[in-house]
Amino acid sequence: MKTAALTAAALAALTLPAFAQSTTMDSDMGAESPMPGADVAVMEQMDADADGFVTLAEVQAVFPDVQAEVFDEADVDADGLLNADEVVIAQADGLLPEEPVDDGSIKG
After folding, report:
1. How many whole angstroms separate alpha carbon 43 and alpha carbon 63?
2. Coil, strand or helix: which one is 27?
3. pLDDT top residue among 85 and 27
């Protein structure tokens, strides 16, 4: 009984920090990045129609070297679009750049 309680306490102590991290963004794509190193400006730059999602064409307009296979890997829910969370994860995984293109096209 004592071992089960200690195991449960240890498991809870080790998993609570993982639950405390947020991996979602505010609907207005707030200033805080949900993951370290993620740059919301990249999402804003790619999202040409400002609908909150980016298509392969929108990604390639900003980052022409991104191939369809990379886009598909980043598209976790396989809906043909990347949402802000998928962009952040793709950046963290090194699939998409974390820095916006410095051409003055960032909307804001």
Report:
1. 12
2. coil
3. 85
Residue 19 DSSP symbol: H
Question: Given a cut of 60, is residue 14 above it in pLDDT?
Answer: no
CA–CA separation, 50 and 42 (whole Å): 12
Q: What are the extents of the domains in the chain? A: 23-92
Topology (CATH) of 23-92: Recoverin; domain 1 (1.10.238)
User: Would you report the helix, strand and coil content of the chain in percent, each value rounded to 5?
Assistant: 45, 5, 50
Give the Cα separation of 97 and 59 in Å (integer). 10
Q: Token pair 């995984």 is at which residue?
A: 93
The amino acid that residue 67 corresponds to is Q
22-76 pLDDT, tens digit each = 444 444 444 343 444 446 788 889 999 999 999 999 999 999 999 999 999 999 9
